[in-house]
Amino acid sequence: MPDEEKTIVKNRQAFFDYEIVEDFEAGIALLGAEVKSIRAGRVSIKEAYGRPKKGELFLFGMHIAPYESAGFQHLDPIRVRRLLLHKREIRVIISKVEERGMTLIPLKLFLKNGKVKVKIALVRGKTKYDRREDVKRKDMDRDIQRELKERTRE
User: Fold this and answer.
1) What is the pLDDT of residue 142?
2) Range of the domain at 59
């Protein structure tokens, strides 16, 4: 099974709050028992965001709970973690983040072939009006699907 993927955590609120412009798959530089803690699902990406710093990309605000059996190694749960991408991807992301209104946020954290990966996205914030429109559209789609389902039963 090539490219076996297991989702650990998703940032569903991001799809409601932001308009996703472009997404990327990146690795994360982790230390010690952080991987075991992530595999156990003791991670949160809700408040996380990415920022460029000295030509590299970093993930701020991702919380990885300490692993109980880690022994002497106690790391800061919300320390800054480096994102691992190709140089050209980093250049594209940095140029777009420096544009007005673009933000870098994680959409999901997953395991791919045993490695921890994060799906990050360049996003633009939605206005209140846009969010209301999305809710209306989803409600209408749900009503249409319900109506079609009822008609096919008859």
Assistant:
1) 93
2) 6-126
